[in-house]
Design brief:
Largest sheet: 2 strands, antiparallel
Structural class: alpha+beta
Shape: globular
Low-confidence stretches: none
Strand content: 5-15%
Helix content: 25-40%
Mean pLDDT: 86
Order of helices and strands: HHEHEHEE
Number of strands: 4
Number of helices: 4
Distance between the termini: 12 Å
Strand order of the largest sheet: 1-2
Length: 98
């Protein structure tokens, strides 16, 4: 398990992610740009979390750094970037932070 994983269970992240979903209307932002209406399921960080920025609220909790994605778009985002692996449910398996 990555050291980033505990962050996603915090009250701050849960509240932030829920508020962001509500703000953008619950649809996948990338699909919507293509005229496709698909439910967004994963609040994604545009600048990915790292040990250096994990505790920086302007990265970890800022709406400017978030994007609501469907599982398909989230999987595409992370499969293009090695060494991430995405399972069939769209969950990202991150390498350990050293």
């Amino acid at each position: 398990m990555s050291s980033r994983q505990p962050f996603y269970g915090t009250q701050a992240w849960t509240e932030c992610a829920n508020a962001y979903r509500k703000k953008v209307g619950g649809l996948c932002e990338r699909c919507l740009k293509e005229g496709i209406y698909r439910a967004g399921e994963i609040v994604h960080h545009k600048i990915h979390l790292s040990p250096d920025n994990l505790k920086d609220p302007s990265i970890a909790l800022s709406f400017d750094n978030l994007e609501l994605l469907c599982r398909e778009c989230h999987a595409k985002e992370h499969q293009e970037q090695k060494p991430y692996k995405v399972d069939e449910l769209g969950r990202v398996d991150l390498p350990p932070i050293r």
